[in-house]
């Protein structure tokens, strides 16, 4: 038995059904930015699609992998789970904003290179931003703490031992035997 579907009826005033674009003022990596975006635009999409800051990665788009981790007022957050409009007057730092003004790398970025704490590199920006947030939180006192508190950031290549080595070195935490 064959069935045919009727084409959907046209929606009258379709543009009236959607909210208008809104103005959002974000401070990203120390620079004030004004965007005209839909109210449902995630911070991740605002960074990548509107500001062309593509270092922050879209992994799972469900907040489960940590590839999209950025810092909001120094605290780590999954940018795929938060709307850009929620961050007026907040300081947003992406991987592009971690380097020093003179162009030298953040100590964690240097440690990741020194410890070969990446393979494909896809998770690296989120791992580094998460580690900076971890340091800002001041809760990690041991290698086990670092492992636990970084567990929300997934590395499919399995570079975890090198990531932990890089983070603990910068934090001055002694390696456990």
From TrEMBL:
Keywords for this protein: Iron, Metal-binding, Oxidoreductase
InterPro entries on file: 2Fe-2S-bd, 2Fe-2S-bd_dom_sf, 2Fe-2S_ferredoxin-like_sf, 2Fe-2S_ferredoxin-type, 2Fe2S_fd_BS, Aldehyde_Oxdr_Iron-Sulfur, Beta-grasp_dom_sf
Domain 2Fe-2S ferredoxin-type: 22-98
Transmembrane stretches, start-end: none
Pfam families per the UniProt record, alphabetical: Fer2 (PF00111), Fer2_2 (PF01799)
Superkingdom to which the source organism belongs: Bacteria
Name listed for the protein in its UniProt record: (2Fe-2S)-binding protein
Native source organism of the sequence: Fibrella forsythiae
Lineage, opening ranks: Bacteria, Pseudomonadati, Bacteroidota, Cytophagia, Cytophagales
């Amino acid at each position: 038995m064959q069935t045919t579907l009727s084409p959907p009826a046209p929606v009258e005033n379709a543009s009236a059904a959607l909210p208008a674009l809104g103005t959002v003022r974000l401070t990203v990596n120390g620079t004030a930015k004004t965007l005209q975006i839909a109210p449902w635009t995630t911070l991740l999409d605002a960074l990548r699609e509107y500001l062309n800051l593509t270092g922050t990665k879209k992994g799972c788009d469900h907040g489960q992998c940590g590839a999209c981790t950025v810092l909001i007022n120094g605290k780590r957050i999954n940018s795929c789970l938060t709307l850009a409009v929620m961050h007026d007057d907040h300081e947003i730092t992406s991987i592009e904003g971690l380097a020093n003004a003179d162009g030298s790398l953040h100590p964690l970025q240097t440690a990741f290179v020194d410890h070969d704490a990446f393979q494909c590199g896809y998770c690296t920006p989120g791992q580094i931003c998460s580690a900076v947030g971890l340091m800002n939180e001041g809760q990690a006192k041991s290698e086990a703490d670092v492992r636990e508190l970084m567990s929300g950031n997934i590395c499919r290549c399995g570079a975890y031992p090198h990531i932990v080595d890089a983070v603990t070195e910068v934090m001055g935490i002694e390696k456990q035997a």
